[in-house]
Amino acid sequence: MATLKANKRTDFKRSTLQKIRHSGHVPGVIYGKNTDNLAVSLDSVDLLKTLRDEGKNTIITLDVSGETKSVMVTELQTDPLKNELVHADFQVVDLQREIDADVPVQLIGESKGVKDGGVLQQPLFELSVTAKPKDIPQHIEADITHLEVNDVLTVADLPVQSSYQINNDPEEVVASILPPQQSEVPEPDSEQEPQEPEAIKEKDDDGE
To answer: 141-194, pLDDT tens digit by residue?
Structure first.
């Protein structure tokens, strides 16, 4: 569990928020059940590195002036033009109580169907799970090695784990192998000898 230093914020002027961001920090809010909202700021590089190394569902201990809180990141806001982190929301979690979270699906292996020319489709990229915060996986693996052309892998086919419960419909498709795509080549027309233009009939003697 990573520990990050955070500072309380009491000045909410736009100019102050800009100064926080220009200094390499990101403003954020800590919230949760039976918890008063608390405005904070923390080093944006440290936060992003933690999420990259440990996953978006990792539990982070925020040290705010010596008081620690176990939190999960629930939302990150970025500036699409500058590609910079501008705000973060942190939810206080009870490590002994189950919560819901979205977990990425990671396909592993190369399927037989793909080797035979089939096309891999993945309609489901995240799964909803219920677990205690420390038991939430950073990703759920789906082995597609055995899938052949026209086969599908559903939620029900994923390994059952005692540490968390998957909430998705068991029949929901995680991955499938479509038949090879065949480009439509128009069939050539049957060869025919070019026809001469119809000769103009000579007029008969009567001029008809």
So the answer is: 999 999 999 999 999 999 999 999 999 999 999 999 999 876 555 556 555 555
Roughly how many angstroms between the first and final C-alpha of the chain, as a whole number? 105
φ, ψ at 178 (rounded to 5°): -85, 155
* CA 147, 153, 156, 162 torsion-angle sign: positive
Alpha carbons 8 and 21: distance in angstroms, whole number: 15
Q: Widest CA span of the chain, in angstroms?
A: 121
pTM for this entry: 0.74
Alpha-carbon span 142 to 126, nearest angstrom? 11
* DSSP of 128-172: EEEE-GGG--S-EEEE-TT--TT-EEEGGGSPP-SS-EE-S-TT-
The amino acid at 157: D
The SS3 call for residue 185 is coil
CB 98 within 8 A of CB 129: no
Q: Residue 15: what are its φ and ψ, rounded to 5°? A: -65, -35
Burial of 174 (0-12, 13-18, 19+ CB in 10 A): buried
